[in-house]
Amino acid sequence: MTKPPPLIFENSHDGGSLPALQMLVTDIFTWEILYQISQFAIRVAFMKYPKIIVNPKKANSDAAKATLMELGPSYAVSFVHSLYVTARGVMHLYSLWAASNMDKIYIDGPEGDYREAHLEVARTNILFVAYLFYDMIHILHQYPKLGGGDTMAHHMLFAFCSVINGTYGIMPFQFGWLIVGEMSTIFLNWRWFLLKSGRNSGVLLENVNTMFAGSFFLTRIVMYSAGIVHLYIFSMSELKSLSSPEVSGVPLSALGITCGCMLLGWLLNLYWGSKILRKVARGRTNVPVKSTEPVAAKAGKKNRRSKRE
Fold first, then answer.
1. How confident is the model over 242-270, as pLDDT tens digits?
2. Is the per-residue pLDDT at 189 higher than 70?
3. By the 8 A CB rule, do 261 and 158 touch?
4. Which residues of 168-178 are buried (b: 16+ CB within 10 A; e: fewer)?
5. Which residues are paired to 170 by β-bridges?
6. How many CB atoms lie within 10 A of CB 91?
7. HEC string of 16-52?
8. pTM for the complete prediction?
């Protein structure tokens, strides 16, 4: 029997579209509240411990304070986001590891064997979309200090893909290995705070750079490549079936955009990974200050903190 077209995020919650959208709005406000808390905490820290926050020997204290006060809250929220979704991504991979290829690629109805695991993935997906919306608001508000048109285009494209996946209930396992790529963003945000506070040399910065490079290759090269192979070689028949009205009914155009973004993200990760490898081989530690976003890749842009994938 042919299914009617689903409402937005209908397959992301047992209650359907409305509670899923309520969750999305709640998450957007939650990220904004976290931003306000971070802004307050940074202000208090500067009032009480200015010489601890900024290294006066290696940084212009006034300039460093202005930068950290203005942009620091966004980087702090990005740090929390990347840490949280990475942990949840690992959980999703573990919970769906033994699932069939079909259960890895399609969220079945309430009677499905992996319903709880699927809904947890959908929950993280909504959280991720909420973060993208929250971040776009701040990008526009502080334009272009937090990013330009390329960052906005990136966010809108991946928000579209996540909405499609959440609406039609597709790609739960793939979302897991995409979102764990945010692990490298943790260390890029950490690095940003070190540099802006005047700690632009020393063992700590070298260790953070090493952890960034290691996490990038582990998640965005090794795991991402394995995921692409599994999807396009070992799950091709299941992938083709997704557009069938008897399965998800996702339009071929929307499915094509989602698959195309995953392939593009993989190619970009390979390109950026080769650049990092060349820098490491030359003994250079100046990695980009920001990364690409998640699910698919967010590295190597100017003036913008690391994201999503």
1. 999 989 999 999 999 999 999 999 999 99
2. yes
3. yes
4. bbbbbbbbbbb
5. 106
6. 16
7. CHHHHHHHHHHHHHHHHHHHHHHHHHHHHHHHHCHHH
8. 0.89
